[in-house]
Amino acid sequence: MKALYLAAGLILATATASSATETFTNASSTNSLNVVPVAAQVDLNDCLSTESSSRAIRACSKTIRAAQPNDDVRAHLYTRRALHRMALGRYDDAASDFTRAGELKDDDGLELLGHGFTAMMQNDLSKARRKFEDCNNRGKIAPIAEYGLGLTYQMAGETLEARDAYQRALALRPGWTAVAEQMATLEMP
């Protein structure tokens, strides 16, 4: 099941990585942000890595403190740290980071999505469903919310509901291979 989460989490994280990298790279050439030391660039690279480890979590923490980037970038970094924490089974810490990210972006969609995946990883499927349903009509994250909803139904053995959620995810994001592959694993009655 962790592989399923990581597929969705990596989609979310990939969207955040380019913004953080661009902002930190540009920080050294502008006076609007504190200059990011070269060591912070190494930490940023470790934070944006797809390899989850304690080192990646520490790197995210250092990067958050290294400069005073705008709130969007900080939210992306908190999201990345949350994903690393989830991959390592640190669900309460991940939920806390998703909350911080949501507060910084002034958008609770990201927070709801993160809390949905956190609850799913803790096998609290009813809580996960509520979180996904609360954010499934919010633009860019709607397909991920539908995918998460499908995963919770599949985990509970509710294949018809899972298929419907996966189809909604595909309608919102046509050609999404991970969802199509997951839908193919359903054993229909």
Automatic annotation (TrEMBL):
SUPFAM superfamilies: TPR-like
InterPro entries the record matches: TPR-like_helical_dom_sf, TPR_2, TPR_rpt
Family matches, as Pfam families: TPR_2 (PF07719)
Signal peptide range in chain numbering: 1-20
Keyword vocabulary terms for this entry: Repeat, Signal, TPR repeat
Xref: Gene3D superfamilies: Tetratricopeptide repeat domain (1.25.40.10)
Repeat (TPR) residue spans along the chain: 143-176
Stated name of the protein: Tetratricopeptide repeat protein
Protein species of origin: Algimonas ampicilliniresistens
Lineage: Bacteria, Pseudomonadati, Pseudomonadota, Alphaproteobacteria, Maricaulales
